[in-house]
Amino acid sequence: MKYILVKDNLSEEFKNIINTDAYKTRVEYLKGETIFKQGAFAPYVLYVVEGLAKVFLQTGIDKNINISVVSKGEFLAFSSVFGEPVHTYSAQAITNSKICMIEKESFQRILLNNPEFALNITSQNYRTEKHLLEIIRNLSYKQMRGKLASALIYLCQPDFLQQNIFDFLTRQDIADFAAISTESAIKFLKEFEKEKLLTLDGKKVIIRDFSQLENISKSG
Question: 3-class SS at 44?
Fold first, then answer.
């Protein structure tokens, strides 16, 4: 799934707010740091100024499902704008990241006063919803090979690869994106390599046969 980066269509008011200390706080997170935790109070909308972060659901003790990766120009905790009092998921920095925390009330005013910007945000949220439906389909119908293939296709988006995302992901992270065990992820990665669908180089995963990987993803 390809996200629209709203940084390319920022309204002047939004640019002013993210550069005005009265309305926002800018925080730097190191790789691996928790940005916010599922169930915690959600007072801000968060805007990614720099870096990569993963969004995940905590489904049990030491059990997570990775939902998505957010990058420069995207938002986190957007549901707080519509009255959601707590975070419905957790977020963690994959790389060193800079995050802008914007007061909900300020962001609501921007949306009300800038229809084009609000439409852009709505479009991004639609793509997020579409991705969530794909995750549900993967969990419900696909075998492990299909789940892993779908996860790899998602992680190989150009925006992520430009930041060398696999350098910052463990095999467990990849397994959590596919909703399979770490052992299964390692096993099927090696199978895909033997089938010449990809090359493993340390942490890196280099796709060699994208079309075949797509076929495995579609067939499940």
Answer: strand
User: What does the block give as tokens for 35?
Assistant: 């940005």
What's the chain's Rg over C-alpha atoms? Answer: 18
- From CA 136, how far away is CA 139, in angstroms rounded? 5
Q: Backbone phi, then psi, for 67, in 5-degree steps?
A: -95, -50
Task: Please spell the DSSP secondary structure of 182-209, one letter per residue.
Answer: HHHHHHHHHHHHHTTSEEEETTEEEES-
Q: Which structural domains are found in the chain, ordered by start? A: 6-136 (2.60.120.10), 142-219 (1.10.10.10)
- Look at residue 91 and give its three-state secondary structure: strand
Cα dihedral across residues 29, 37, 130, 165: positive or negative? positive
CA distance 215 to 138: 14
How far apart, in whole angstroms, are the C-alpha atoms of residue 19 and residue 22?
A: 9
Q: What 3 state SS string does 129-172 have?
A: HHHHHHHHHHHHHCCHHHHHHHHHHHHCCHHHHCCCHHHHCCHH
pLDDT digits (tens, 9 = 90+) for 33-92: 999 999 999 888 899 989 999 999 887 777 788 989 998 888 888 888 777 889 889 999
Q: Enter the DSSP assignment of 112.
A: H
End-to-end CA distance of the chain: 17
pTM of the model as a whole: 0.81
Q: Which residue, 198, 148, 190, is CA-closest to 173?
A: 148
User: CA 150 to CA 128: how far, in whole Å?
Assistant: 16
